[in-house]
Sequence to fold (215 residues):
Amino acid sequence: MNLLEEVKLIVEQKFRTESADHDWYHIERVLKLAEYIQSKEGGDLLVIQLAALLHDISDHKLNGGIKNDCGRVSREMLTRLKADEKLIGQVCEIVDNVSFKGAGVEDVTGSIELDIVRDADRLDAIGAIGIARAFHYGGKHDRSFYEPNLEPTIHANFDAYSSDKSHTLNHFYEKLFLIKDRLRSKTAQEIGSQRHDLMAEFVASFLKEWNVNLK
Fold:
């Protein structure tokens, strides 16, 4: 079994028991999206594959609230599996910088591999799957669909963003609708444009039905 196969097995076993918003199928979709983008844009395939598999390995939403922990856990795993030190460093740099940290927080710039994995993760947050994941996560945390008097927030830092407990529809304005313009690769931008339009249509329909606008 090679390094990629070992990491994939470990990650699959860990995420099989997570809920649908951040489960193994999410990881698998991000991996496939990253591989597809790499086939069009280039970049080190193994680095991209490993980072895609490990990008949520210790996400604050899953580990009890510990922030910026994916790099540490990834380094421990890859070191245990005797991966090359340069490879470990490349993967850890990516997984530490994939997460969206708030509308007012600029993304860290880096390698093409970082761009591709971050794009892949964000593509899975939008479109039809993104809508399903958003409402699943909101339901899991007892958040309402929509509160008309509670406006979206432009979060200035990661702490404000990660601690926000607003209704699910605000998540579209606070993150999901912003993703299209933050995608770096041309390939992801093309995919993201279609998924963005689908979400916009959904939210327009949601608000029309919420307000019982039958005209």
In short: The mean pLDDT is 93.
